[in-house]
Amino acid sequence: MKVLTSRQFNQDVSAAKRLSRDEPVFVTDRGRPTHVLMSIESFRAMSGRRESIVDLLGLSDAVPVEAPTHDRWDC
Fold this sequence. Notes:
Elements: E1 2-5, H1 6-11, H2 13-19, E2 25-29, E3 32-37, H3 40-47, H4 53-57
Parallel strand pairs: 1-2
Antiparallel strand pairs: 2-3
């Protein structure tokens, strides 16, 4: 189990995300655990949820598709 202070977490979020790929990362505030960061795969395994079409459609790295600029009946 990895533990980061809130300050460490805020200073390097990318490092916290890398650490959470292998195991949950506990974030503390004034020495007390307040949050847990884990990979989505770990969360789904723990909660029993599977990826849904809604999850896939909400991906932020999805490539936007532009609608055609002409009406298909105007040929």
